C-alpha cells in the first residue's frame, strides 16, 4: 500500500525539514509539501493534489493532525475525501489511523483540539496587538511586496503572472494589490 506524505508549515519563514525527514523515515515514497496557513483549505494546492490522486489502499500520512488543518470540519472533510477514494489517513504523533473505528474518534477529538489551539493563538495575538497599540509601539505588519512596483508594472502592460514571477510572489497577491484603491 503506497504511503503518501503531506507536510505543511504556515509561513515561508518556517522550515519543513523535520516533517520531510520524518515522513521519509516512515516509508513515504511520495511527499507533497507547502507553506500555507492551515486555517482553511483555501490555497492548499498540494493537499488538493494528493486528495485528487489517492487510490484505494493508499495511505495519506502526516506528522501531526494540525498539519492537515486547524479547523475540525476541514480535517474531517479531508479524512472523508480520502476514505471516499478508498484510502486511509495516518497521523504519526500521536499515532492514529482511520483504518479502525477508534481512529475516527481520536482524529475528531484531535481536530477539535487543533481548532481550539488556533483560537487561542488568534486571541493571544489580538491581545498582544492591543497592548502594543496602547503603548504606542504597534506599527502594523511590514509590507513584503512593493505595491507601487506592482502597479507600475501593471500600468506598463505586464500581466499578473509576469509580475508575480518578477517579484517572487503569487498571482493572487498581485490581484489583491491591484484590487486595492
UniProtKB/TrEMBL annotation:
CDD domains on file: SR_ResInv
Keyword Cell inner membrane: no
Entry similarity comment: Belongs to the site-specific recombinase resolvase family.
Limits of the Resolvase/invertase-type recombinase catalytic domain: 2-136
Active site: residue positions: 10
Annotated SMART domains: Resolvase
Keyword flag DNA-binding: yes
Residues spanning the membrane: none
Gene that this sequence comes from: tnpR
Protein name, entry field: Transposon gamma-delta resolvase
Keywords in alphabetical order: DNA integration, DNA recombination, DNA-binding
Organism name: Methylobacterium cerastii
Amino acid at each position: 500500500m503506497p504511503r503518501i506524505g503531506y507536510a505543511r508549515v504556515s509561513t515561508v519563514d518556517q522550515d519543513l525539514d523535520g516533517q520531510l525527514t520524518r515522513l521519509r523515515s516512515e516509508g513515504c515514497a511520495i511527499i507533497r509539501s507547502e507553506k500555507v496557513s492551515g486555517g482553511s483549505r483555501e490555497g492548499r494546492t498540494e493537499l488538493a493534489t494528493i486528495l485528487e490522486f489517492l487510490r484505494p489502499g493508499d495511505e495519506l500520512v502526516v506528522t501531526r493532525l494540525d498539519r492537515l488543518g486547524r479547523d475540525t470540519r476541514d480535517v474531517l472533510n479531508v479524512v472523508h475525501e480520502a476514505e471516499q477514494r478508498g484510502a486511509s489517513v495516518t497521523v504519526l504523533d500521536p499515532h492514529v489511523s482511520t483504518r479502525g473505528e477508534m481512529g475516527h474518534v481520536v482524529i475528531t477529538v484531535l481536530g477539535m483540539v487543533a481548532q481550539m489551539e488556533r483560537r487561542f493563538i488568534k486571541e493571544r495575538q489580538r491581545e498582544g496587538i492591543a497592548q502594543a497599540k496602547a503603548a504606542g509601539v504597534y506599527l502594523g505588519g511590514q509590507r513584503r511586496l512593493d505595491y507601487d512596483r506592482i502597479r507600475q508594472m501593471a500600468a506598463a502592460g505586464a500581466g499578473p503572472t509576469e509580475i508575480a514571477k518578477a517579484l517572487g510572489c503569487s498571482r493572487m497577491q498581485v490581484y489583491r494589490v491591484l484590487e486595492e484603491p
